[in-house]
Amino acid sequence: MSKLALQAQQFDKTRRKWMLDFVRDSRSKWAMLIDPPEGGDPFGGLVQVMARAPLSGGDSEEQRYVLRGRQGAEDYFARLRGFYEARRYVDCWQATNEPFVGERTFRLMFSEFMLRWSELMHGDGHVTGGGALSIGWPDKKVAHVVELLPGILAGEYLILHEYSAPTMQDRVGDHCLRYRWLYDTMRNIVRPGQVLPRLMIGEVGIDGGVAPIHRDKTGWKTYCHGSFERYLPQLAWYDGEIAKDPYVEAAFIFLFGGLDAWRDFDIDEGNARKLAKHMASTYVTPVAPAEPLPEQEQGALPHLLEKLRWWCEEMQRMHEAGDLERANRIRLSMIKLLSRIERMAKEL
Questions:
Q1: Structural domains in the chain, sorted by start
Q2: What is the pLDDT of residues 110-119, one digit of tens each?
Q3: What is the pTM of this model?
Q4: How many CA atoms lie within 13 A of 327 on its CB side?
């Protein structure tokens, strides 16, 4: 199943129908809303929802809360508590967006902030996702990860952003798929019994703001020359890569329903339907595990004789329950097991 997912900046009446069509047709597991609407679940239970509560002052205003550590977390939570409460349908809340972690003080305050904010959120019954670190962070230095780890472990999910340009495959490992280095590093430093959170790629796609291009707010339309047919294979490539890592929960494509400033990243209805078709094509119907049968039993002769008695009882239970097909399969398989027991007995 595809792990790609919708991230909507605007989820208004003009977009709601086709976005609902997208999550249904794509078989998405998740969707993300920036500034989610108040009230009931706008997706009607079709998907799990991750959400942000952006502040009017943007990321820089959020950063000021993070830099105050524990007290900042308490003030941030108090400010947004009513917002969270009015949107109980949200399955996971993202904390602040793209906090800077390039200096030691910032990393330590991030951990202090996340520990307290998650504690408060959990007390109100919310699931949390921390981090939302921008592309290229943290630095590939173990000491930096050690300082961030308490904050990372505070939530059920870790959120990272992954972009590259001019294609998503440029500088793989430094930009897209950088998360693998971080998870490998964390596995080596966690204490016994500590469990790493599952990973949400909170934003993913093409963004010219990455090194060495440094062209802010240029997205797939610039680098794919407006052709979604050039962009879709790159998303499909990333989808295939994250499928190899079971700890990756979802990857939210930036962006659906984008505001004017983010028009170069926007995926409209027509292109969303093309993406949904790709995602649905990756879906494989789960195969039920094969039913156990007597012939599959292994072990020494006394053990097999004991299991044979149990299977006789199981065959009788199936008869009494009216499942004659299952009872007959057990009977035929018991003949095979009896033949093996007979050979074993002759060899004694």
A1: 4-281 (3.20.20.80), 294-346 (no CATH)
A2: 999 999 999 9
A3: 0.82
A4: 12
